[in-house]
Structures are given as C-alpha cells and as structure tokens.
Design brief:
Oligomer: single chain
Number of strands: 5
Number of helices: 3
Organism: Psychrobacter coccoides
Strand order of the largest sheet: 3-2-1-4-5
CATH topology of one domain: Nucleotidyltransferase, domain 5
Radius of gyration: 32 Å
Strand content: 15-25%
Helix content: 25-40%
CATH class of one domain: Alpha Beta
Keywords: Cell cycle, Cell division, Cell inner membrane, Cell membrane, Membrane, Transmembrane, Transmembrane helix
Membrane topology: Single-pass membrane protein
Structural class: alpha/beta
Distance between the termini: 92 Å
Family: Belongs to the ExbD/TolR family.
Subcellular location: Cell inner membrane; Cell membrane
Amino acid sequence: MRQSPYRRENKPLNAEINVVPYIDVMLVLLVIFMVTAPMLTTGVDVDLPKEQTNTMSQQQLPIIISLTGSGEIFISYENNIDMPISEPELINTLSNLQMQNNNTGAPPIQVMINADQNNQYGAVMALMANLQQAGIEKVGLLTGSPLPPPKLQ
C-alpha cells in the first residue's frame, strides 16, 4: 500500500534550547548600552566620600572658612580665629598660604567649608569657585553630628 502524500511524518521531539533569539537580544542590549554609556558620564566632576575615610593629618591644621546665612565670610587658620574677610582678600590669603606651602614642600593645604544650613546653594558654589581661583584643589564640607531619632512611646 502506498502512503498518502498528505500524511504527516512523526519526528522525534527536539528538546534542545534554541539560543539564537537570546543571542540576538543580548547583542541589541549591548549596542544600546554602548550608545547610552557615554551620555551618562557627562556632568560635574565630584570627589564623593568613600565608606571608610582617612583622618586628617595632624601635621597641619586645616583652614576653616565659615559662611553665615547672611553671606558673611570668616576664615580660621594658624593663630587667626574667625577673622572676617572679603572674597578678594580670601583669594589672596589662600593663594599666599598655598605658595608658602609649595615653597616649603609641605603637603597641599586642607580647606574645610563650614556653611550655615540655611545658605543658598549658589552662595556655597560661589565660595567654592573662589577657592578654585586661589588654587585649592580639594575642599571638604563640615557637618554637625546628626540629631538622635525621636523616641517612640
């Protein structure tokens, strides 16, 4: 007896995974990430604090620049404590201190900003721009200890 041309052949089941679609998806994702990654790296270069921080060197005390909520600037260094100072004087003073440090071969001066929490963001950024003009490369921000959480009764 002759077999019918319309009859299906019973092939054994194929239990292998077809990985070609997965490879295609992975290649598309790779291209997307390669295109978008350079766009994510633009922005301001910020030196973020790490989990474990180093203690400040005891050889040299930091210069503390205080910025009040009303915009007044004070500087504390060596024997000068909370001396009121204008922006141009601040740049000159820090430039001179930086030059003295460079001449003696000491490590770069450490500057800490002690700003009032009610200061405008622009005022703190203007102060940091002045520090950059004076040649200061690294600046730290001082904070107070956090308040304890309220006790639940």
